[in-house]
Amino acid sequence: MEKEEELLKSHITKHHLKATKERSAILKAFLDSERHVSAEALYRQMKDEGSTIGLATVYRTLNLFCSSGLAEQRRFGDGQARYELTYNVDHHDHLICKECDLIIEFENDEIEALQKKVAKENNFKVSSHRLELYGVCSECLKEKST
Amino acid sequence: MEKEEELLKSHITKHHLKATKERSAILKAFLDSERHVSAEALYRQMKDEGSTIGLATVYRTLNLFCSSGLAEQRRFGDGQARYELTYNVDHHDHLICKECDLIIEFENDEIEALQKKVAKENNFKVSSHRLELYGVCSECLKEKST
DNA sequence: TCTTACTTGAGAAGTATTATCAAAATCAGT
DNA sequence: ACTGATTTTGATAATACTTCTCAAGTAAGA
Question: How far is CA B101 from CA A56, A118, B138, B139, in A?
Fold first, then answer.
């Protein structure tokens, strides 16, 4: 059994929830999907492969992943929430291309350290943060110059 | 006439729009409101003071403020968009208390510089960015410990 | 196996925001 | 100030995304 599956199972047991085939199927599809997938996109992807699982269940299950620590919800400007696997993944931030929706992840320890400093100066206990840089990626910049 | 009023007027003239009493009233209320006000909150605030301006017009006008460079739209996790005056205000980021919704603004040039560096390394042309730290403010921390 | 409690799919409902449209208001040119 | 063209307005419908509701189905534990 994969580690993600184990984590989900332990969360399910701990909270007196139930292991269902729908949840396994959605986890499998989620692990298979591209990072930053939306509920709608995951639903379509599964449907195209013959699944009959409803959209509401996909939403419910993605939220379950978030509460079990497997995933995190992100929102980048466009209305849709996106979900990304965070288990065993270091914290990172995002560069988002407004032309082609490319999302690049990056890590920067110096920025993290400065954030901690700012929080301390304001007597804040920070539980999460997000940093997003919006702009145009190199590919789209090339296209624009032609 | 205040500077903000002038800026709005020049945007209106430039784009062949019309100066209306509704727009003046909303601008006045906006300048008077707390920072990071939502459309709904601004609408209620005005209504409570006797205004009969519709919610749709408040939304439209806040968007107008954004395109004229007076304001910027922000989204902090909860579904609502918030608007903040940006004219003559330096760029800044936010600390958000999840307990009491307190929002603290801060500026940090070192972080800004590091962001530029990251963008450069990824050949990104950044047009905007946002950094938000979510957590618990000092007041709420105090309350929790009692 | 039985019972209880959780989960499911379908569609209704909710939330935040934008679109539609007829009536009213503003602007530019006289 | 008058007029006509164009924009703006308020009310409400529509939209987009997500959660809720509920009856029927299913898993877990005694």
Answer: 29, 18, 12, 12
Q: Give how many domains chain B has, as a whole number.
A: 2
Q: Which of B68, B85, B102 finishes a domain?
A: B85
Task: Over range B91-100, report the average pLDDT.
Answer: 90
Per residue in A5-33, pLDDT (tens digit) is 999 999 999 999 999 999 999 999 999 99
Looking at the fold, whether A77 and A123 belong to one and the same domain comes out as no
pLDDT tens digits, one per residue of A31-74: 999 889 999 999 999 999 999 999 999 999 999 999 999 999 99
Which positions in chain A touch B97 (Cβ < 8 Å)? Answer: 124
Q: Which nucleotides of D are covered by protein (CB under 7 A)?
A: 6-13, 16-21, 26-29
Residues contacting residue A48 through CB under 8 Å, at least 6 positions apart: none
Tokens describing residue A55: 């959209």
Which phi and psi (to 5°) does residue A63 adopt?
Answer: -65, -35
Which residues constitute the domain of residue B62?
Answer: 3-85
